[in-house]
Amino acid sequence: MSEPVPTTDTQDWPGHHKDLNPQPDLLTYRDGREHVGTGKLKNKRSLITGGDSGIGKAAALMFAREGSDIVITCLPEERHDAEHTKQMIEKEGRKCFYLATDLSSAENCRKLVHFTVEKLGGIDVLVNNAGFQKIANTIEDISDEQWDFTFKTNIYSFFWITKAALKHMKPGSSIVNAASINAYVGRPDLSDYTSTKGAIVSFTRAVSNQYASRGIRVNAVAPGPIYTPLVQSTFPSEMIEISNQVPMGRMGQPSEVASCYLFLACSEAGYITGQTIHVNGGTVVNG
Length: 287
Fold this sequence. Notes:
alpha/beta, seven-stranded parallel sheet, 12% strand
């Protein structure tokens, strides 16, 4: 189990799981227990974007331990981390495939869904997890190109992938979207990222209402500061230290968010749709 306040060492974007020191908790909880699978997702087929590292990696491993076969995505420069995730999933006795691709492209998103159906035969769980963020103190510091890329990666991809995946999802399927505490607190130095996360919350609510009658649930998780390569490659060390200043006094671990992804994905959450779970160390937000 990692230290309560992880290292403030930074990385170059997009960051790599293998370079985090100490390594984050992926399958271990704060009391030292390791996640034990009980068949919650037995023989399910899951697509998890950004499953090479961070929260997505932890979710992929938990899902596999619960009996699911997995497709994950990564950026081309993150193949090493994706291969590591694949190997860990295969040790759990489940299938894993990964696609290195840029999800800011509609065509790539549709190819991803086709790839998943081709490899797994269908989709029972979709986790829209991949995202991009870059610090800019004011909106005057954000170029049109950055604004466009952030929206295409963080919310357009959710639309493109969800739209394509729904054609292959049956009653009992589940969609989990990665939102953020920033959608609720309005973080000023991530205004483009924050805007996309607000859109994700609304997108989740709208699609949940559209598909509730068809037996497909759609929910979101809004993490606070979590010890991932994305955070370590986005913020300078002094800002990482500040991010630990939540009521619980530490960053969260990927395992602590992935367990919420798992809950929403499985039948235990069968009466929950259109909701957002806040995993943020005790910061109280509205919504």
